[in-house]
Amino acid sequence: MFFSTKPAISSVKKSPPQIKPLTTLDSFQSLQLATDSLASARSNGEQYQAALPDGGLVTFAIDQNLQKRVKEVMEQYRLSYGAFVAIEPKTGRVLALVGHSSIDSSWEQRSCFGIYPMASLFKIITAAAALEEKKVLPETMFAYRGKLTSVNPGYWQIRPGRHNQEMSLTTAMGKSVNPVFGRLASDVVGRDSIMSYTEKFGFNQTLLPGTVIPPSKAETPQDDAALKLMGAGLGREVKISPFHAALMMGAIANDGIMMTPALAKEIKNGKGETIFSLKPQMMRRLVTSETSIQLSRMLSTTVSSGTSRKAFHDRRGRPKLASINIAAKTGTIDGKDPEGHYSWFAAYAPMNDPQIALVALIVNQDKWKIKASHLGEQALEAFFR
Questions:
Q1: Residue 377: which of 110, 84, 88 has the closest Cα?
Q2: Which residues, in sequence order, are bridge partners of residue 164?
Q3: pLDDT 10s per residue in the chain (385 long)?
Q4: Which terminus of the chain faces fewer neighbouring Cβ atoms within 10 Å, N or C?
Q5: CA 44, CA 59: separation in Å to the nearest integer?
Q6: In this structure, are residues 161 and 236 in contact, taking their beta carbons and an 8 Å threshold?
Q7: Ramachandran region of residue 34, left (φ > 0), alpha (ψ -120 to 50) or beta?
Q8: How far apart are CA 234 and CA 331, in angstroms?
Q9: Looking at the whole model, is its pTM more than 0.85?
Q10: How far apart are alpha carbons 196 and 214 in whole angstroms?
Q11: What is the DSSP string of 274-292?
C-alpha cells in the first residue's frame, strides 16, 4: 500500500456563498442601488423592475413610455453622445434616465452623472441672484453693446452718450443674450453674490452623499472679464451633470424647492421585506417662491419667441404643444470630454402645474445630428400624449 502526496479531492460540491438580505435603505443608498441595477431592468407589465443579488427586487419610478421614446430618438439619429434626465418636480421621482452613444457604449451608463460645461443654463443662476436680491425685475430694461451671441466681454460695456441697444431681461433670457447676462453678473450682482448662489444651487459640494454622482463645479472668476463670461454661461470651468441640472429645473418648477431624487419606487430584499419606498422629501430651497415665479415668466419666452421656437413650432408657425405652457432654457458651447459641440435643453411643464422637469444634452461632432431642443420636444410630446 502507498499513499499519494496529492491532497484528496472532495466529491462534495461546495455551497454557493450566502448573500445576506439587504436592510433598510435611506434615499441616497436607494438611489445608488437603483442606479447600479438600471442596466439589468426589464419591463414587467406596467412595472419596470430589476432583480437584486440577494433575491430582492427594485421597482423603478420610471415612466416607461417616456424612457422608450427618448431612447428611440437617440438611436434613430445615431447620436454621438446623448444624455436625458426627467424628474417629477413635486416628488423628486425620476421619470427617465437615458444615455446613448454611437461611438462609446461605455459612456452611456455614466452620461447622466458626468459633469460638462454648463453653457447658457448658467444664465438661470445669474438671473436668480439678481432677482433674489431685489436688484431687478423680469421687465427691467437692460442696455448693452455687441451681438446677441458675442463671446467677447470687451464689446459689451455701454458707452454714455452713445447709441446702445436695450432689451428686457425676460426677452434676453429667451434669446439667451450673452452681453446682457454678462453685464448683469458684473454690474449688478457681483462676484461674491454669484459664487454664493452657485453654492445655494448645489455647486462645489456633495449634493447627493452616498452616490457616485460627482459634485458640479464652479470656479471663482479671477477678474471682471471672467465674471462676465461666467454670468453669460461662457465660463468653461462651470460644469454640471444632466442629473443635477434636472434637479435644478425641478426646484424652480416646485416653488424653489429641490426634492430628493428617487429612481426607485420600491425596493424589496430577498425576504420580501420592503426596505425602501418613495416618500417625497425636501432636499433644499434654491430660491423663494416669488423668484421661481419670476424665473418662470422669463423662461417662458424661450419656446414662444426665443432660441427653441423653431423646435416647438411647425413650418407654418403653429405650436406643436399648443395647450401646454413650457418654461425652458437652451445652451451651446464647445467641449473636450467628450469632444464636440454641446447642445443643452432644460425645461418644465405645464408652468401652472409642473408635472415634469427635464434636461437633454447632446454632443454633436463634425456633423450635427439634432439639437437638444428637438429631443426635449419629442420627450414632452410622449409624456403629455
A1: 84
A2: none
A3: 333 334 443 444 454 555 777 889 999 999 999 999 999 999 988 899 999 999 999 999 999 999 999 999 999 999 999 999 999 999 999 999 999 999 998 999 899 999 999 999 999 999 999 999 999 999 999 999 989 999 999 989 888 767 788 999 999 999 999 999 999 999 999 999 999 999 999 999 999 999 989 999 999 999 999 999 999 999 999 999 999 999 999 999 999 999 999 999 999 999 999 999 999 999 999 999 999 999 999 999 999 999 999 999 998 999 999 899 999 999 999 999 999 999 999 999 999 999 999 999 999 998 888 999 999 999 999 999 8
A4: N
A5: 10
A6: no
A7: alpha
A8: 10
A9: yes
A10: 20
A11: EEEE----EEEE-S-HHHH
Specify whether the CB–CB gap between 288 and 132 falls below 8 A: yes
CB-facing half-sphere around the CA of 10: CA atoms within 13 A: 4
Contact predicate 112/99, CB 8 Å: yes
Distance between CA atoms of 27 and 259, rounded to whole angstroms?
Answer: 11
Is 153 strand, coil or helix?
helix
Return the axis-axis angle of helices 191-200 and 224-231, rounded to nearest 10°.
40
Identity of residue 153: P
Block residue for cell numbers 407589465 = 45
Beta bridge partners of residue 167, listed in sequence order: 142
Instruction: Using alpha carbons, select from 247, 189, 240 the residue that is nearest to residue 219.
Output: 240
- The 3-state DSSP class for residue 20 equals coil
Q: Residue 58: which residues within 8 A CB-CB, separation 6 or more? A: 33, 34, 37, 41, 49, 50, 51, 52, 264, 266, 267
Q: Kindly state the cell numbers that stand for 76.
A: 434613430
| Cell matching residue 87 | 424628474
In angstroms, how far is CA 315 from the centroid of its own chain? Answer: 29
Do 359 and 344 meet the contact criterion of CB atoms below 8 Å apart? Answer: yes
Residue found by looking up cell 445630428 in the block: 369
